[in-house]
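FIELD: query
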Amino acid sequence: MHIEDSDRRLLRHLMAAPDASTSELAARAGLTEATCWRRLERLRVQGILRGQRAVINWRALGWEVEVSLRITLDKTNPRAFDDFIAAAREVPEVLEIQTFLGRVDVRLNVIARDMAHYQEVYRDRLLTLPHISDLEALMHLSDIKQAGSLPI
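FIELD: result
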């Protein structure tokens, strides 16, 4: 897919300031407001710009524990992926579900208020998910790098 240099410039400014208004983005990118709006709309239609979202600091809201679970499913059951993913979506503490090719089939990003709450979620909601053959929990300690942008 081909995009112009002005689209790249617009995307760089959007990544740097995702909460900027269209008029602010236009000024930063050297475009008129109308042109900026049309380009953003075209990038959405092309599927390049998929949306904007709020990034929430869960720890500031009292969710102190973050765990990444790497799960291998019992692939002898042809419905293992579908059943597991449908059930995992129902667990409110699961923030993210990713699937992979390889030894690990699924990764869940899970949050909890504290260790006691995590143990409850783990025991009562996560271990009861269907078709798990192996599970590895990785306790999140810190974020070293979270690149919200790419060099475009």
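FIELD: remark
The beta strands are 65-73, 94-99, 106-112, 132-139.
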